[in-house]
Amino acid sequence: MIATELLEKYGALSKSFNKSETIFEEGKSPTHYYQILSGEVKMNNFNDDGREFIQGFFNKGQSFGEPPLFLNRVYPANAIAVEDTELLCISKDNFMKLLSENPSVSLKIIENLAQRLHYKSVMAAEISTHEPEHRVLRLIDYSITYFNFKEDKNGHRIDLTRQQIGDLTGLRVETVIRAIKSLEKKGTLKIINRKVYR
């Protein structure tokens, strides 16, 4: 999202994380802005029973964990590397200086945060009030835009696993599989080589 050269100009350094390694923990104070060079990151929480709730997945070019930087509050979730991941990390002070000296970048950050807020608002309403098929389809439709899924002759390939769809909609994997199969029968989705297309 922010040009690598600009981040490096303000002192950003690259840092590697192994698959399943924690980048930051819920309850800790934020110290850096993070942007993904390669790999994937998820933000999650666990309830008292140990059940995981996924806040979101972030991929190459995306940033994550910014709101606490602006609010001076602790992280509301953990950030975990889903696979081997390389990040650009810039200290909070340098990040704030970058934003104050580059207003166009500030606008991009605002737009990005607004997009995420919109996504969470949409999905919160879907998760609380609708049936599994509707939840899955709504997530897929929103994800096509939000995650920039590519389109080919079969449609948009949904690069989310059944587990990830379940985690993002609050559904069990078995329920997600049944919902996808039902949506395929209705002609709403296609399954080609185990990949879901819309």
From TrEMBL:
Family annotation (Pfam families): cNMP_binding, HTH_Crp_2
Domain annotation HTH crp-type: ranges: 130-198
Record domain Cyclic nucleotide-binding: where: 15-116
One term under GO cellular component: cytosol
Repressor keyword on record: no
Keywords: DNA-binding, Kinase, Transcription, Transcription regulation, Transferase
Cited PROSITE patterns: CNMP_BINDING_3 (PS50042), HTH_CRP_2 (PS51063)
InterPro entries linked: cNMP-bd_dom (IPR000595), cNMP-bd_dom_sf (IPR018490), Env_Response_Regulators (IPR050397), HTH_CRP (IPR012318), RmlC-like_jellyroll (IPR014710), WH_DNA-bd_sf (IPR036390)
GO MF annotation list: DNA binding; DNA-binding transcription factor activity; kinase activity
PANTHER family registered for this protein in UniProt: CRP FAMILY TRANSCRIPTIONAL REGULATORY PROTEIN, REGULATORY PROTEIN YEIL
UniProt protein name: CRP-like cAMP-binding protein
UniProt lineage: Bacteria, Pseudomonadati, Bacteroidota, Flavobacteriia, Flavobacteriales
